[in-house]
Amino acid sequence: MNRAIEKSYKNKLAAEEGYFLKRGAGLRIALCYPNTYAIGMANLGLHTMYELFNRIPEISCERAFLPDRGEMAEYERSGTPLMSLETQTPLREFDVIAFSISFETDYLNMARMLQLSGVPVWSSDRNEFHPLVIMGGAASFLNPEPIAEFTDVIAVGEGEILAFQLVDTILESESRKDLLLSLARVGRGFYVPSLYDVIYNDDGTVFDYRPKADGVPRRVGRALAAVNPKEGTLRRALKRGETELADFLVNQEVFCPSTSVWSPAAEMGDRLLVEISRGCSQGCRFCWAGYNYYPPRVVPAKDILAKAREWRAKTNKIGLVSTAVCDHPEISTILRELRAMDYRISVSSLRLDQISDELLDALVESRDQQIAVAPETGSDRLRRVINKNLTNDEIVDICGAVFDRGMLTVKLYMMVGLPTETQEDLDEMFVLVERIKDRMLLAGKKFGRAGKIIPSLNGFVPKPNTPLQWDAICDEKELKRRIKYVCKGLSRIPNVDVRFMSARIAHEQALFSSGDRTVSRVIDRAATLGGDIGRALRELEVDSAFHTSRDRSYEEFLPWSIVDSGLSFEFLKEEHEKALQARSSLPCPAVEKCTVCGVCPSTWLADAPQSLIQIQPVRVREALALA
Ligand code: SF4
């Protein structure tokens, strides 16, 4: 045992409340977050899985993180194998190592953590005596292929649905081989990469995935936490005064993902984080979180408020986690009640078209966060390409509503390198930011001060399972030129402070987002080189551009298609074609019986095993039939 690391871990635990220490449980799970403690403890997925696993009597679940700078130096100096936080047990002594990965950029850290733990990184190098390595989290249904060969089982879908079935199968299986086959044969929710042969075409593209055993599906469906009411169904019921149906929907027994361990030393650790809804209805064509969490579902207000009451003695800060806070049909009730409890409210993101006066008032009152909005680009035309249906006039008005409340600093998220982008689109960014700045100065006169406009520029990275998945990322040199051009132009505007992400980082992200299994070697090598992806690519002679910088045809088998998101090919293709013509589409209605994108029960969920998919349980069907 290394004393310095032990001390660092014990200090972290001493600052926490609510962690679990279970002795004598039959199955030990090391729940790993592939980033540091400070970042990992701000992740609700990690809190959720930690709570869910530890609720199961047979399980003892401990956490492990990428060591922070001081700990890492100590691990490397002493050769100590990576340990869990709670009991400082080496990871290699656990039965299961379960990674929760929200961002594909953390794939490198996953490999690094396995290297540090002394557990072979490649599943083919492990045997019955090694821990089972599982991966879950949002990245699992985005594109798990770059780390598929590091992983024994990939949980495809939402953890609250998959955790119990996973544990049952582990406990019931006699051997690792039985376990892997049983999980793969569930047909949905569990992807076992070693049970597939990947067949490549001569040009290096994927031809197909062939299951190696009977009963293993050709494609693995996503499992959804589906007892939560669909956002549109609940909104309609409330709007139409259908109280019986509305009551029925909000009284479903749902799991409310929220902070489970109080950890003030972590980012946002001094506040209660509660997920109020999942998914976004707008269908912005670049946004993986929107499409990959279709259909948008909500946690009823009563469950959110119950959590808030439970935690109020501990904190007066609450963070509402959602891709579209104001879409929640009960948002007024939630805000009113939280303000009555004297909570300082912050939100994870604001969708411009839905910002309400009451939410702005609550945010101003709490003075707890900088307002960040996302115009994405400077031109109305390009916004139609990405299906963000707002005009520059509307954006300036919305920012004005923020400034008029005395919040004179806003952050603006913008992208460079979108498909069809022209020089005129880039120039329109300057016009838009100038107008927002002028509106800020006008409001500032009333308050006797000026604020700041902070544009944050990112290179556009095409994401799997979105309509822009077939597009290439803008060439690295050209992307660099465009970012530089926009930065320079914006920097000339007074009261503007530009931030940007480099073109190189955008390209690295694209490699992990769109790569196939051949990228695994690069990840493993780069992890040993301290994260130097460029050098790993050169050493291994892997052409990153093959994965990132070519337009893909509709006929190409996309590596991430092994995971079936439920979105139909026809829907995504039509949306892609509309993008290229700058034509917008209507939002997802998130109501029963809709068949537009293919996700809902009338299509692929209809024959799903009841234990996994409860998107339309019998009681809901009956209630809807009555309505
Ligand atoms: S099928 Fe309709 S309601 Fe369901 S996710 Fe797709 S667009 Fe939304």
Molecular structure report:
The protein is α/β, with parallel strands linked by helices and 627 residues long. It has a 6-stranded mixed β-sheet with strand order 2-1-3-4-5-6, with helices on one face. The chain has a 4-stranded parallel β-sheet with strand order 15-16-17-18. Helix 11 (301-311) packs parallel to helix 12 (331-340). It is globular, with a radius of gyration of 24 Å. 51% of the residues are buried. The model is unreliable at 602-627 (pLDDT under 50). Iron/sulfur cluster (SF4) binds at residues 294-295, 588-591, 594-597, 599-600.
Ends: how far apart?
A: 63 Å
Structural class: alpha/beta
Mean pLDDT: 90
Number of strands: 19
What gross morphology would you assign? globular
Small molecules bound: iron/sulfur cluster
The largest sheet has its strands arranged as: 2-1-3-4-5-6
Q: Supply Rg.
A: 24 Å
What is the makeup of the main sheet?
6 strands, mixed
Essential attributes:
single chain, 627 residues, alpha/beta, 6-stranded mixed β-sheet, 4-stranded parallel β-sheet, 24 helices, 13% strand, disordered C terminus, binds iron/sulfur cluster
